[in-house]
């Protein structure tokens, strides 16, 4: 991998390598840009096959966060931290505190948060070393687990998608399949149920399946998922479920869920468009969580204020659909354009972010 060529491809600002042999910390933080404000992005802890895979994941996810934050109107840039773990280097409190010291040394250019492989307790450990962390239970004015907010944003996006496809945002009697019944997916299912939708669920985790069944959700076996016929498919688990193998089997009108990187390749957006399936771009659909966390920066988390912003995610999805129709382009391309235009509109006057000494983050 030629790192600088890779960074030039999508205008990345910074790639930071962190190593602490005492704690076993091996991590990479990628800052895509700080045009709109300090770069916000979660800390992902994962077992990677190689260092190159970890770097590529950090680059890809940081760009996704930058576009997510821009498209949903957050005054923040995008970043991501990935921590490499294995049997010899498991996650520990010491490792997390070491990471916290590195984050603190960045001086506010980067603010971390929870992601795959991390928990609220992990954010508490990081908070022992830095204020530049969101979602900790120990800081006054924090919002706690952002999963319900992510689900709320998905629900608003599903309604916006229904309005675009059917002319009405009502979900009553719509058949909706939620793949992934964890903290986000189960809440999405409940929102849809409350509006009178017929909700189906799919998950490989037995506990998640049991929780869903107790809520009256009809379970579809994972190996029969692509036999399901309905109206809306809501992927809320792993990415890349939209690919050359699955698209020909799809028997529904809309794809709208919280999973990251649902399209295995960008070209699949055009394939869906040609097939007549409406795709709501995931990085906007799942933005409720980052909106939730970002709200902490406004003098402490306020649920009512955060929900007002989250409820506007559906409006942003509607803008994407409008751009897609007007310019005759796939919705994933339209979403990227929406984000890029917002970044460019500020870029010439904002420049590179440096934390203002009077910022509330320093108080």
TrEMBL record:
Instruction: Tell me which SUPFAM superfamilies the record gives.
Output: Aminoacid dehydrogenase-like, N-terminal domain (SSF53223), NAD(P)-binding Rossmann-fold domains (SSF51735)
Going by the record, the broad EC class of this enzyme is oxidoreductase
Q: Does the keyword Transferase apply?
A: no
User: What EC number(s) is this enzyme filed under?
Assistant: 1.4.1.9
Q: Which residues form the active site?
A: 80 (proton donor/acceptor)
Question: What does the entry list as the binding residues for NAD(+)?
Answer: 180-185
Record keywords, A-Z:
NAD, Nucleotide-binding, Oxidoreductase
CDD domains xrefs: NAD_bind_Leu_Phe_Val_DH
The keyword NAD is annotated on this UniProt entry: yes
Molecular-function annotations in GO: L-leucine dehydrogenase activity; nucleotide binding
Q: Which InterPro entries match?
A: Aminoacid_DH-like_N_sf, Glu/Leu/Phe/Val/Trp_DH, Glu/Leu/Phe/Val/Trp_DH_C, Glu/Leu/Phe/Val/Trp_DH_dimer, Glu/Phe/Leu/Val/Trp_DH_bac/arc, NAD(P)-bd_dom_sf
**So what family is this one in?**
Belongs to the Glu/Leu/Phe/Val dehydrogenases family.
* UniProt-recorded name of the protein: Leucine dehydrogenase
Native species? Anaerococcus octavius
Provide the taxonomic classification: Bacteria, Bacillati, Bacillota, Tissierellia, Tissierellales
């Amino acid at each position: 991998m030629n790192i600088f060529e890779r960074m030039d491809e999508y205008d990345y600002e910074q790639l930071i390598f962190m190593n602490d042999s005492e704690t076993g910390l091996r991590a990479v933080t990628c800052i895509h840009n700080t045009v709109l404000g300090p770069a916000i992005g979660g800390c992902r802890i994962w077992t990677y096959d190689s260092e190159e895979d970890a770097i590529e994941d950090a680059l890809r996810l940081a760009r996704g966060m930058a576009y997510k934050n821009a498209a949903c109107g957050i005054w923040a840039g995008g970043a991501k931290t990935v921590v490499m773990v294995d049997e010899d280097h498991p996650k520990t409190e010491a490792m997390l505190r070491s990471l916290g010291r590195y984050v603190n040394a960045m001086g506010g250019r980067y603010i971390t948060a929870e992601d795959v492989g991390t928990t609220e307790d992990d954010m508490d450990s990081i908070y022992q070393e830095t204020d530049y962390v969101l979602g900790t239970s120990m800081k006054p004015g924090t919002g706690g687990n952002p999963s319900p907010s992510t689900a709320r944003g998905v629900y608003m996006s599903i309604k916006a998608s229904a309005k675009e496809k059917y002319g009405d945002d009502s979900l009553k009697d719509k058949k909706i399949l939620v793949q992934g019944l964890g903290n986000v997916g189960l809440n999405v299912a409940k929102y849809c149920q409350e509006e009178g939708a017929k909700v189906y669920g799919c998950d490989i985790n037995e506990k998640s399946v049991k929780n869903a069944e107790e809520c009256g959700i009809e379970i579809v076996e994972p190996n029969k998922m692509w036999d399901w016929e309905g109206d809306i498919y809501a992927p809320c688990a792993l990415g890349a479920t939209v690919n050359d193998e699955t698209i020909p089997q799809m028997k529904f009108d809309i794809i709208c869920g919280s999973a990251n990187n649902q399209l295995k390749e960008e070209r699949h957006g055009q394939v869906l468009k040609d097939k007549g399936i409406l795709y709501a771009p995931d990085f906007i659909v799942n933005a409720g969580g980052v909106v939730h966390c970002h709200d902490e920066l406004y003098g402490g988390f306020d649920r009512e204020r955060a929900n007002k912003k989250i409820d506007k995610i559906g409006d942003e999805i509607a803008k994407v659909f409008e751009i897609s129709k007007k310019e005759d382009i796939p919705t994933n391309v339209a979403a990227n354009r929406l984000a890029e235009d917002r970044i460019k509109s500020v870029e010439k006057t904002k420049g590179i972010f440096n934390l203002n000494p009077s910022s509330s983050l320093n108080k």
